[in-house]
Amino acid sequence: MKSLPQFIFTCVLGLSIPATTVFAHEAGHQHIHAEKTEILPLPMLLEKSGPVRKPKLSSETKVSGQGFWKFAPVPNVLPIPEEAKPFVKGAHGTLIVDAQRDILYWGLQKVGWISYTEKLTQGNIIKGDAALASGNLHGADLFYRKGKAPLVVVADDAESEVYLSDTTFQKAQKLPWPEGGPYTNKNQFHPTDAAFTSEGQFYVTDGYGKAYFMPGTIDPLKYDGVYIGGKEMSQTPHGITYKKDDNSLLISARAEGQVKKMNLKDNKFLETLGLPPGSSVCDVDIWGDYALAPCLNGPDKTPGPIYIINLKKKAIVSVIKPKEDLGFTEAQHMHDATWYFVGTGRQKEVYIIFTNWNPGGIGALKLVNQPD
Are 251 and 240 in contact (CB under 8 A)? Predict the structure, then answer.
């Protein structure tokens, strides 16, 4: 665990005051306040090219997006196993991708993990540790290890726990609610996402509870006593994503429609990116300079879009509308989305896999080339 650095916190009077130590409350835990940063509204920017070669011209009739970033629905993929079908309507879960083995995992409430292989054409329920099928696998992350199966950390908002396993999912270690910190009972803690920062450390965000996010260690499996943010940062810090290239965390502030960036070197909040008003962002998934930002709702309570953000240019380069444009009739609220690829280099095919909530479901989109 990195040593605790300097940070700036906002005091009760609303003044930004430099501090040389982390603020320690009487309860014995450490609380880093989220200092306010200027909100940067993300403009729309049309891109004519992207990080891969433009696909061959497509004759698809249903396409959503702008410029280079247009997507079409993918038929005949993501079959739902019969045993899982009764639980799909209430789906409120997550997606992770093992790109090295070409496996997509879907966390489904009361089912556990479903694996998709053979380029998304084969779906199977993984009969793993019973804990993974008890509650709701709401938000997760995968970490590669040399010579071993990848690690998976996943937040269960229903059971108020976090699970650590590998991708066999046969044994899940449980991390219970952070007793002894700012929490006095289990019902105050409903974690919604988790992200690795290294093989030995991860962060958890309590989007449905008291709204802190916090680091934890793997060996031993525990929280390390630092709590960041709280309701002053966001009413619902729903998603958390590690950005490796600059060692930062991106926090998806759902209620505010913002993505907040914190530098892990000094725990300083650097910027706040503002999505179009009314957009309730659930999480972000990063590929190079680009991030997917699925939203429960769009502006004026329209069906949830998936924004593609160029993080380097700080602009929205495409708005994908699965329900309005692509015929996904039940995709009212986007809950999670991930990049998925077939092939390598500039020849790779680019997909977006998404889950929707209320009602639940899953879908796949493919990058296509169609004239404006």
Answer: yes
Q: How far apart are CA 145 and CA 152, in angstroms?
A: 11
Both tokens assigned to 263 = 């530098």
How far apart CA 184 and CA 283 sit, in angstroms, is: 27
- Whether the full predicted model's pTM is greater than 0.85, yes or no, is yes
Question: For 30-59, what is each residue's pLDDT tens digit?
Answer: 999 988 899 999 999 999 999 999 998 888
**Class of domain 52-368 as given by CATH:** mainly beta
Measure Cα distances from 173 to 148, 151, 220, 335 in Å: 17, 11, 11, 26
Compute the average pLDDT of residues 188-206. Answer: 98
Domain chopping of the chain, boundaries: 52-368
